[in-house]
């Protein structure tokens, strides 16, 4: 079973991080249709800006939680695939 961690850019410029076992395009469609009440329902339309796929749901859940704890700047570096910048953007190192 594949699980996808994804980041959406909302119409207000904020980011939403989630995970899904279904095709990510179908999940993005659900966000844009407002199928579920939640963070993105009032921030439509949303745009898919990042995905990572995992074989184990436990790994996907851990990654989703990790990304949700990151600053906006660090999320933007991830979206830009600037992996080399991620260590320098760690909040513990910025203090």
From TrEMBL:
The lineage's top-level taxon is Bacteria
CDD domains (alphabetical):
GIY-YIG_UPF0213
The entry's family comment says: Belongs to the UPF0213 family.
Q: Which residues form the GIY-YIG domain?
A: 1-77
The leader peptide range reads none
Matching entries from PROSITE patterns are given as: GIY_YIG
* UniProt name for this protein: GIY-YIG domain-containing protein
Annotated InterPro entries: GIY-YIG_endonuc, GIY-YIG_endonuc_sf, UPF0213_domain
Q: Per the UniProt entry, what species is this protein from, by scientific name?
A: Pseudaminobacter soli
Q: Name one Pfam family in it.
A: GIY-YIG
- Where does the sequence pass through the membrane? none
